[in-house]
Specification:
ARI3A/B/C; HSP20-like_chaperone; SHSP domain-containing protein; mainly beta; transcription; single chain; Immunoglobulin-like; nucleus
């Protein structure tokens, strides 16, 4: 009997999108990008930061800026301010971009493609 692979609802591919640190490097922030049929999904680990300490900005050319600013700079975990720029490979709709940060420091950003790019 041959085991079948689980079926994904939509085709997903992991992208090697360039991520650049602006300012001091923040190697502790891990970022992965996946492409689905209608959007990019960005997954980032931002441990030690609260929801209000993380900011996500996007622009139509496909640039996503993720930054973090801990309220306490002298925290015992060594969490420091950071700013990372993710260059996505196509135009996006910044007005429909949404982000969620969990209590465990997991950031999920849904970045829809620009409507003209889908057609």
């Amino acid at each position: 009997m041959k085991a079948s692979k689980p079926q994904l609802r939509y085709p997903v591919s992991l992208l090697d999108s360039p991520v650049v640190d602006v300012g001091p490097p923040a190697d502790w922030v891990k970022i992965n990008v996946q492409r689905t049929k209608d959007c990019f999904e960005v997954y980032a680990l931002v441990p030690g930061l609260l929801r209000e300490e993380v900011r996500v900005q996007s622009d139509p050319v496909g640039r996503l800026v993720i930054s973090g600013q801990p309220e306490q700079l002298d925290n015992p975990w060594g969490v420091s301010p950071f700013k990372k720029v993710v260059s996505l490979p196509s135009r996006i709709d910044p007005h429909q971009t949404s982000a969620v940060v969990t209590l465990h420091g997991q950031l999920f950003v849904r970045v829809p493609f620009e409507q003209a790019a889908i057609s």
